[in-house]
Specification:
This protein is an all-alpha fold. The chain contains 10 helices and no strands.
């Protein structure tokens, strides 16, 4: 059960309604964003994920960016974010449980997973594999992008933000989602 009710247009204060409309002009107002509407500053901080997602696509394919986010979300056991990524993969015709990864995608997935599990333990070997594909500036952006994905995971999981109804067709057992 959700710990903090999301703002709705019916319950919004005038300031929240204005922020809703401002947010809606650029994004779909998901359950996470509706919950974040309680704080302009928190919402803005979390929405910084989007510019980094777009910038990451200058050095990653969209698939690689989604695989990276999926690895982080699955390692963090964030159902909401994992289902968003799962939906994207399924809509692209992929089986999220049997992904075909080249060396580059595998390095991205492994790095994402490690950021989520224990960023202090990113091995030299893993960093070298990542560095074979990305430059220093790109790794800085990627790491920050990953950290913001972790922020999304922590927010959704700690506050038990409800899974958006649009994700219901992509629900699977936790063992399948996080296995």
């Amino acid at each position: 059960m959700t710990r903090i009710a999301p703002v709705t247009l019916e319950t919004a204060t005038p300031a929240q309604e204005a922020l809703w409309k401002e947010t809606e002009a650029r994004h779909v107002v998901t359950n996470m964003k509706a919950t974040l509407l309680r704080s302009r500053e928190a919402l803005r901080a979390v929405l910084e994920w989007y510019p980094l997602f777009h910038k990451s696509k200058t050095f990653l394919s969209e698939r690689e960016a989604v695989l990276f986010c999926n690895a982080i979300s699955r390692a963090n056991h964030c159902a909401l974010c994992s289902l968003f990524m799962r939906r994207t993969l399924v809509q692209w015709g992929e089986d999220p449980n049997n992904l075909v990864l080249d060396d580059r995608a595998q390095a991205l997935v492994d790095f994402g997973r490690q950021l989520a599990v224990d960023a202090n333990d990113v091995s030299d070997e893993l960093f070298a594999r990542l560095s074979a594909f990305l430059g220093d500036d790109e790794i800085v952006d990627l790491t920050t992008f990953g950290a913001l994905m972790i922020v999304n995971n922590v927010f959704n999981s700690a506050l038990k933000v409800a899974v958006d109804p649009s994700l219901d067709p992509y629900r699977v057992t936790p063992e399948t989602l996080f296995g």
